[in-house]
Amino acid sequence: MDREKLRALFTKIQAGKTSVEEALRLLAGMPFRDLGYARVDTHRSLRTGFPEVIFCEGKSPSAVAGIARELLSGGGDLLATRADRKQFAAVRRIARGAKYHDAARAITVRRRERKGEGLVVVCCAGTSDIPVAEEAAVTAGMLGARVERLYDVGVAGLHRVLAGRDLLAEARSIVVAAGMEGALPSVVGGLVSRPVIAVPTSIGYGASFGGLAALLAMLNSCAAGVTVVNIDNGFGAGYAAALVNRTGKTGL
């Protein structure tokens, strides 16, 4: 939305010809900024509560930086996923406060620090699943959730996840990342009265088929309350968990 359109809209509000609610509706519908190589959704925060997230795979460092510049011009935070160090360096040149999260392969920019609310617990079965779990944790944190991690608690040593039952019971939502046979989300789902968002990872030997075995196991979970995102989609799980956390309350 350009200045003249904003000026016209504000003039109508001032004259009483347009209500504040109608103006908000119009602003939410304003589309994007066309950069030629990308159409940046500059009003997503108004619609959904968080700006557009940059998926960096396949994008040049300059393209990532250009999109980041447009998103940051609105004064909000920034999250970019599946980023490498070259893309981070390009973003850092236009946003000195940018931070790179190695395990999550994510870039974040926070314009103001704020205390996380509620609680999202992010679990993973083994240390090989940590990159996907960290993508979920960073995402949920950027969306305003307080995040706690419970890592390396796979079913090969069931006592490890049982030791975290008090933390799991406190959560508003739980992300569980697991590869191999993908059994951990069912175990966690059977222990808690919270929504469990399962993330199959591509970790495992040949018959895991790059995470397909874990995906099917999670889709066939006998534990109620387990929902499943795509293979290695830590971002999607963290985002969903944060939305649940935003409106959820502990206890039944």
Task: Please provide a written account of the structure.
With 252 residues, this protein is an alpha/beta fold. The chain has 2 domains: 29-109, no CATH class; 117-247, Rossmann fold (3-Layer(aba) Sandwich), CATH 3.40.50.1970. The protein has helices at 3-14, 20-29, 44-48, 61-72, 85-94, 130-142, 159-162, 165-170, 184-189, 212-219, 234-247; strands spanning 33-34, 39-40, 54-55, 78-81, 99-101, 106-109, 117-124, 145-150, 173-178, 196-200, 226-228. The chain has a 5-stranded parallel β-sheet with strand order 8-7-9-10-11. The chain has a 4-stranded mixed β-sheet with strand order 3-4-6-5, sandwiched between helices. It is globular.
List the helices and strands and how they pair.
Layout: H1 3-14, H2 20-29, E1 33-34, E2 39-40, H3 44-48, E3 54-55, H4 61-72, E4 78-81, H5 85-94, E5 99-101, E6 106-109, E7 117-124, H6 130-142, E8 145-150, H7 159-162, H8 165-170, E9 173-178, H9 184-189, E10 196-200, H10 212-219, E11 226-228, H11 234-247
Parallel strand pairs: 3-4, 7-8, 7-9, 9-10, 10-11
Antiparallel strand pairs: 1-2, 4-6, 5-6
Helix pairs in contact: 4-5, 6-11
